[in-house]
Structures are given as C-alpha cells and as structure tokens.
Amino acid sequence: MRLYWGAGLSPLEWIECALVAASLAAALLRPGFGQAWFARREPALARLASRPWLSAALVAALAVVPRLLLLPVDPVPVASIHDEFSMLLEADTLLHGRLANPALPLWQHFETLFVISQPTYSSQYLPGQPAALALGWAVFGHPWAGVVLGVALLCALSVWMLRAWVPPPWALLGGAVLALHLGVLSYWMDTYWGGAVPAVGGLLALGAAPRALGRKWTGPSLVAGAGLGIVFLCRPLEAALLVLFLAGWMAVRAKRDEQMTVGRIVLRAAPAAMALAAAVAFQAYDNSRVTGSPLTFAYQINQREYGTPQSFLFQKPVQVENFRHQELRDEYLEQLRLYRRGRTPAGFAAKTAGMLRSMWGLYFGPLLTVPLIFCWGARRGTQVREAAALVGVFFVAHALYHAYYPHYDAPALGAFLLLIVAGWMRMSRWQWRGRPSGAALSRLLAASCAASPLLLCAVRIAGPGLPGWQNWGRKVEAEFAQDNPRHAVMRCLEAQPGRQLAIIRYRQPGHDPGGEWVYNGADPAAEKVITARDMGEAANGELETTMADRKVWLVEPDERPPRLTPLSGQLSPTPGSCPGVR
Length: 582
What we know:
By secondary structure, this protein is mainly alpha-helical.
C-alpha cells in the first residue's frame, strides 16, 4: 500500500479515527465491554509471550501472511520512482556477483537520476537495502521477496528488542501492533526503498545494548556492533547518530553503577567496535570498486556531476552548471529550490511541519496516537526519556536536510516502539471516575489495529457501490500498490519478438522530472529491452548503429496515453500486447 502524502487524512487514517472514537466511547461508557472475552484469551497470550522464539515468529507471520492474502486486491508492487530503480540496479549488480558495473558504451544516452555513469555504471546507494532485494531475488526469483523478508525480520526483532526494555507480554503487544500498523499497511512493504533493513540494524543495536551490560556481554556487544554496521551500510549519518547516542547512554548507565568503570565500558564496547569496523572496511572496499577511492561514496560522485542530493541547510548549496539532459537539470533545480526554501524562516517552518506530518503518519497514525498521549504521563520513566531523546536527536538532524521521508528515521524505530508501549502500559492502568476505562481502551485499541486493514480492504472491494465514491475513490486506490505507465510499456516491448531498444523522448518544457523512464539493469547488453535517452538524430543514429541487432522504438511518456512509435520500418506492436498504449 502506498502511503498517502496529502495534507488531509488518508482513507486509512479516517478509518482509524472512527475506530479510535468508537473505542474511546465504549471504554468510557461501558468499560466492561468485551472484558470476559478478552479475559479468557489473555492467559494464553501471556504463555505465548513467555516463549520468545515462538512469539517473534508469530509476529513476523502477522505482517507477512495478511499482506500475501491481499495480493488479489493489492498486487506485487512495481518500481515507480528514482530511488527504487536505483536500488534495484544495485541489487541486480550484487546478483551478478560484483559491486560495480563497467561503464557503458555511449553512456551519455543512459545517464539517469541517482545513478553514476563514470568511472563505473552503478547506483548511488550503499549496498545495505539492495542486498536484501538481491537475496529475495536470488532465492525466490523476485526482489519484492527481499522486501517481505526484511519486514518479517524487523517485526520479529521488534519483540526481541522490546523484551530488553519491557515485560514479555508488552513486548509481544508492541511487536504485534508494529506488524499490523507498519508491516501490512505502509510503503515499507510496498516499495523497494523502504526502511526495513536499517530498522533491522537499529533494532539489533537497541536490543543488544541493555543486554551488553549484563554478565554475558560478549555476544550482545557483537550483535550491537553488527546492527550498527547494518545501519552504516544503509545510512552512514544515522549510524553515526546511533553510535553517539549509545555511547552517551552507556556513559550515563555506568555513572549510576559504581562497579561499571571506564575500563569495563571500553572492554564491553570492544566487540561492538570490531563488528562496526568490519562494516566500515567493507564499505571502503565497495567505494574503491565503485568510485576508485575508498573514501569517496557513489552519492558524492552523483552530487558533483548532477547536483543531487543537495546539501544540508547549514552547508553551501551544490552548484552544477553544465547538463547534457534537461530532465537531470530539472531534478537538480527542484532539489535546489527545496534547499533554498528550507533556509528561509517560513520555508523551514513549513518543512518541519511536513516532517511531523509524515513521521506521525507512518509511526503513529490516529490509533497509536492514543498511547503516545498517555506516554506523556510516563515521561519520568527512564525508558521514555531515553527513547524520546533518540527520536529528538534524529528529528533535529533530519530537520537540517532539505528533504525528508519517514524511513530516514528507520534506525530509531525501536525508540518509537518504546514510546508507544510505555504509553500503552500506562493507559492500561488509567481509571476514569474510578472505573477501569484504561484496560478496556487498551484492549479495544489492540483489536482496532487488527480491524483497520480489513476495513480498508472492504472499502476498496465494495467501493464503486458506495455513495460518494467518485470523490474519494482515488485516495482509496492510492493506498494500494498500483501499476504505472512505464511498466505497461515495458511489458509491451517484452512481448515483442527479438530484442528492443526504446528511445525515450520527453516533452520539453513541461516534463515532470519525477517521471523518469530511463533505467536499465546491471548488464543492459543482455537484457531484452534497453531504455536510452533521446539525444537528437545524429547521436540516436550512432546508438542505433551500435545496437543494430535491436528493433528501435520511440517512446513519448508525456503523451496521454504514452505514445509508442516503431522506427526503422519494423511492424507495429503485436495486437493485444500493449493495452492503453497507442
């Protein structure tokens, strides 16, 4: 399902608001509602919570099984944005058994967003998230399997992480809520650029850190370092923030424990440092293969050549003068516009408000806002203070960047979970007018988390028959994975006999830089369909001569529907193979 980014509430959020209102009304007016039903089942859940491996496995299944059952109405997602295509290129590169691809001949035709063309043909992204895609691709034949496995692992690890901070029953509840709220419904499950892998690293680090203070500390310390290494291989800045936070956290804990000397802290941190150092060394080697220098990341090459990504707001903007393609220049100008707007007081305020909206929508939403409110009453608890501090560190760091997506905070997912569970624990003890309304509200909200995805699916299935569907049906559809015009054209060309070359010609001016179509795999020469950028008759002719074994098509994505024109006298598309394409 696609996360709805509009200023108003998404259909799912409206459903959750209705469930919150109904739960609150029932808890206040009839706090005994459903108590007998829940009471009969809670002992079994408590026994399940006492079995860590089983409870973690069931929570993982709680995220994966419903999503697979939704495939008839929410099909396997297809890539649609720059980041996804770039991630898939890196995954394909790893699948070919290498860290970088040789530069392509006539590479100017294949320049595209978030991909470097020189000195190698490679994604700008680090290998952490793409490695999960490559694993799913290799084992199950499709990169989305890697997404599903990543989400399943993070849901299982959420239970393990929470058990280091809260009692087992509450750890089970937190993991189940995460699986239903973020595992089934969020863009982490339905795109190829979500936050599952860095979230796994963060959960490992936050779950192992308290355990590393115990008697058997060597293993947990190694696990914490491995988790930090995973975060580093996805998002180096957030890894650095997490390292600094955990270092400060250990120092504070050691100050409270007279037996925890500085020497013991260093000793217990040594295995973690070794594991993290191994990840840093691997990334340095990866850099040397991709960019030719162990200290130069691919995104730095992309930034220097194409001006993306832009700088932090406290840095000077990246300035690029010469572009071979207007589409790449348009993306640069858009990022530069966001950067400049973020440096004004009004723009910074609007950006910060947008950050809060996006963060709230992914990590909380209406249902989980209720325990978050109760968490404020538990703010004096050590766990709450520490979790809030980590969230605050990430928020400040990301507020200084010109753009924001909620998966930037993925390494701090454990902190968000701790805030939710701490508030839920306090909510369960809340009484209103001497009646146990908090216990009822706690149970009803848990049931609502399970009901919300079912209700959204029911709305979509029955949608066309509902009153007012035309006004908000598009928003409901946006919650589900959808096809896109590029994918339809690629399927059309795949269906043609022989090998194909698609020359992409955009409408200028007026092309949306967000609708990029020029993306290829790690070995374009071996692919049936290659996409290339239109560079004029002479340059196109040279490209066609080089690829004389391919049929050539002119694709105009900005037409409605996209126009597909055969060149060099070949036949029109096979009848019926290109629905919606003329």
